[in-house]
Amino acid sequence: MRVVACWMNADGDAPGQVFEAQFAAKYPNKGEELPDEYIFSTPAFSFKTVYHRLIAPVVELPPFAGPGILWIECRVRRQGEQDWLAKQEYPIQLIDVTPSGPGGGENIKDGSADQ
User: Nearest Cα to 22, choosing from 8, 35, 3?
Assistant: First the structure.
């Protein structure tokens, strides 16, 4: 999986201001032997134009326990500051599937049609 986030420079930010970002996966199934959050990239950057695109390297997430919503989040703050200025979130629905055999589709356990 590859994750991309685009940020826009705010009026009043000093030229050359360095920002820190974090990409994180927020897991469903809290209370199980899995992390609630897995941070997978922490790039630093400064704006050369009004917009800056961050691309996380190929992401291999730890396994998850079952169905629910896996949230991918990117947050940003000025370097050296404690509080995050903003965040972006993207939901990924995790569903149970049972393989139907070689070359076949997947049968969703909730009774939906093969996909």
Answer: 3
